[in-house]
Write a structure and sequence with these properties.
By secondary structure, the chain is α/β, with parallel strands linked by helices. It has one domain: Rossmann fold (3-Layer(aba) Sandwich), CATH 3.40.50.2300. It contains 4 helices and 7 strands. A hairpin with a 3-residue loop joins β4 and β5. The two termini are 13 Å apart. The C terminus is likely disordered.
């Protein structure tokens, strides 16, 4: 199962994403971008909100796109990164070339899921799932 990180200061949106994708992705949410940065190598894909509280890690990071740029510069194998915002969508992707995709926050979650799987399929095969036998038992 692919590991997905969601970085957004809106805890309700984080929980909605986690709940919607719980059977298709291993989702971890972060309302604090600094906590995510410390674990960023663990994930296959990142959904990051464009509007973040400023973060001062190794360098100042003022928004989700600057976090994307930071990770691309500092990680040897960064996760795929999808920039999410209420103000931008796929047509604006050219403004943020280091993001692997851009989606508007009001996107239908089924459409977001398809886009996530397309991005992940280009990168690697599906990771094995350790708990296959327990999937029907509430795991």
């Amino acid at each position: 199962m692919y590991k997905v990180a969601v970085v957004d200061d809106d805890e309700h949106w984080c929980q909605a994403i986690k709940r919607f994708f719980r059977y298709r992705f291993d989702v971890t949410t972060f309302t604090d971008p600094e906590c995510f940065v410390q674990r960023s190598q663990e994930f296959d894909l990142l959904l990051v909100d464009f509007v973040l509280l400023p973060l001062f890690f190794f360098e100042p990071i003022h928004n989700g796109y600057e976090l994307v740029q930071f990770l691309k510069r500092h990680l040897t194998q960064p996760p795929l990164m999808v920039l999410v915002s209420g103000m931008i969508d796929a047509e604006d992707h050219y403004l943020f070339p280091e993001a692997d995709a851009c989606v508007i926050k009001t996107v239908d979650l089924d459409v977001l899921e398809q886009q996530m799987f397309r991005l992940l399929a280009r990168r690697s095969p599906v990771p094995e799932r350790c708990d296959e036998g327990r999937a029907g038992l509430g795991a």
